[in-house]
From TrEMBL:
Sample GO molecular function, one term: ATP binding
Matches recorded under InterPro entries: AAA+_ATPase, ABC_carbohydrate_import_ATPase, ABC_transporter-like_ATP-bd, ABC_transporter-like_CS, P-loop_NTPase
SUPFAM superfamilies the record matches: P-loop containing nucleoside triphosphate hydrolases
Chain ranges of the ABC transporter domain: 21-255, 272-509
Domain of life: Bacteria
Taxonomic lineage of the native organism: Bacteria, Bacillati, Bacillota, Bacilli, Bacillales
Protein name in UniProt: ABC transporter ATP-binding protein
CDD domains, per database record: ABC_Carb_Monos_I, ABC_Carb_Monos_II
Claim: ATP-binding is one of the keywords in the record: yes
Species assigned in the record: Paenibacillus aurantiacus
Keyword flag Nucleotide-binding: yes
Gene3D superfamilies assigned: P-loop containing nucleotide triphosphate hydrolases
Length: 514
């Protein structure tokens, strides 16, 4: 299945570039649902190749087949010129294919070295952990990973944990590394560190498949790009021959519209008033004297680099186990003891930043997740018994209204793509028609089309009179949606500006503490 030199030239690659991975007519079905439909794909040695597509386009299914997690129903996979099939991820790893998952597969209580060798067959009967530590140090130096093999994983930052996942693939001898949404949980400095590592891997001859929704990152990092839509191959091209706007159109099949211009907010009733709010976790002060208010029909954006107190601010407002001082009032009524139940009873909705740990019950169905906050009410229960029909009917309406792409309405939430999981969380909160919505990273991990949809729904809630506290590390999102912008730095609100007076430079400097 080798490509000719002329074909390599036509694909915009040096003639020395040869394919390392090819698929021919690859098909994967889940019941009647076709996740991948006759995919033909070519990835060349020593390149960083982006795979783009909407949530549910088939990216993860394709990568799971290439890494041995799934078996194709039809079609062939060729690796380094030979036809291959994998019974397991270990079989794929044995020939040089590794995958770094978006949600890390690490044991926090173990050291880096123990995590790296966990599950491996011993190379020799006299294997010692000290040998693994020496090999990890050698690889760390070679690829610029800066990984300490003797440190416990639970003590590492998210960015460092990701490097451990990369180290696991390198230690097992991977030459072809798949990275699924690798920047979704990283801060901007950690993203820069990751890009440095990926460039080093490419320079050493490794091939990287980079799955992401962030088109600016793809443009900055990748050599070539492939776009999938509804399980089909749409286009593959050198990155230099395209741009983020064209890629967005290819992904969703239409132009992406920026949020529509809207009337300036009027000074409506104060829905939420926060005065001198401070909070502590494990004896450490994480919020310092926060003061702000939120009015009817207003979006107040909270901008800041991840880790500067945004999460702790939400937890303090909801009473999620954070010791706090100061006052919180909803529609003028003081909330003496905030708790999730009390805040929900006061008309407050919440979109958590971690949909897996806090937003969803993954083994349960879409319908069961949708009614999780109102299962005691009609039409979802009667005489303390759940109504399966009521739950299924609500799920059917939500799937249609929120464009949740699923094989069936009773499908487990954990088997949906990340973006569709986020739509389930959004649907559950908006079904309650809240007066106040705390939205933390509402578009994290979503493609441009799904993010556009979420933005539109948030603006519709604003027009309805809902007050929205929008917390996002995406400055473009804040600037596009917020009526006012508060900037957080090291647990303090250091600036609040009206949208008309806000610009990226000013907000960016304040985010950096300048």
């Amino acid at each position: 299945m080798a490509i000719t030199a002329q074909a390599a030239k036509e694909n915009g690659l040096p003639q020395t570039k040869m394919p390392i991975m090819e698929t021919r007519g690859l098909v994967k079905r889940f019941g009647a649902f076709i996740a991948n439909d006759s995919l033909n794909l070519t990835i060349y040695k020593g390149e960083i190749h982006a795979i783009l597509g909407e949530n549910g386009a088939g990216k993860s299914t394709l990568m799971n087949m290439l890494s041995g997690l799934l078996t194709p129903d039809e079609g062939d996979i060729f690796y380094d010129g030979s036809q291959v099939s994998f019974a397991s991820p270990r079989a794929a790893m044995e020939i040089g294919i590794g995958m770094v998952h978006q949600h890390f597969m690490l044991v926090p209580a173990l050291t880096v070295a123990e995590n790296v060798v966990l599950g491996m067959k011993r190379r020799t009967p006299w294997f010692r952990l000290s040998q693994a530590c020496a090999e990890i140090e050698r690889l760390s130096e070679r690829f610029g990973l800066d990984v300490d093999p003797r440190k416990r994983v639970g003590e590492l930052s998210v960015g460092q944990q990701q490097r451990v996942e990369i180290m696991k693939t390198l230690y097992r001898g991977a030459d072809f590394i798949i990275m699924d949404e690798p920047t979704a949980v990283l801060t901007p400095p950690e993203v820069e560190d990751l890009f440095r590592v990926l460039h080093a891997l490419r320079e050493q001859g490794k091939t990287i498949v980079f799955i992401s929704h962030k088109l600016q990152e793809v443009e900055a990092l990748c050599d070539r790009v492939t776009v999938l839509r509804l399980g089909k191959h749409i286009a593959s091209m050198p990155m230099r021959d395209t741009n983020p706007g064209e890629l967005a159109r290819l992904m969703v099949g239409r132009d992406i519209q920026p949020p529509a211009d809207r009337k300036p907010r009027e000074d409506g009733e104060k829905l939420l008033e926060v005065a001198n709010l401070s909070a502590w976790q494990n004896g450490v002060q994480v919020i310092h004297d926060a003061n702000f208010d939120l009015r009817e029909g207003e979006i107040l954006g909270i901008a800041g680099v991840d880790g500067n107190g945004q999460r702790e601010l939400c937890e303090a407002l909801l009473g999620l186990g954070t010791k706090h001082a100061g006052s919180i009032a909803v529609r003028g009524r003081m909330i003496k003891q905030p708790s999730p139940k009390a805040m929900m009873g006061s008309g407050v909705g919440y979109i958590p930043e971690d949909r897996h740990r806090e937003g969803l019950m993954l083994p349960m169905s879409i319908g069961e997740n949708l009614i999780a906050k109102q299962y005691r009410q009609a039409p979802f229960s009667r005489y303390r018994m759940l109504s399966r029909k009521g739950i299924r009917d609500a799920a059917s309406r939500a799937v249609q209204a929120f464009d949740i792409r699923t094989p069936a309405v009773d499908h487990p939430a954990g088997k949906l793509s990340g973006g569709n999981q986020q739509k389930v969380v959004l649907a559950r909160e908006l079904m309650l028609r809240p007066d106040i919505l705390l939205a933390m990273q509402p578009t994290r991990g979503m493609d441009v089309g799904a993010a556009e949809y979420v933005h539109r729904r948030l603006l519709e809630e604003r027009e309805r009179g809902c007050g929205i506290l929008l917390i996002s590390t995406e400055l473009e999102e804040i600037l596009a949606l917020a009526d006012r912008i508060a900037v957080m730095y090291k647990g303090r609100i250091v600036d609040i500006v009206d949208r008309a007076d806000a610009d990226a430079e000013r907000i960016g400097l304040r985010m950096a503490g300048l």
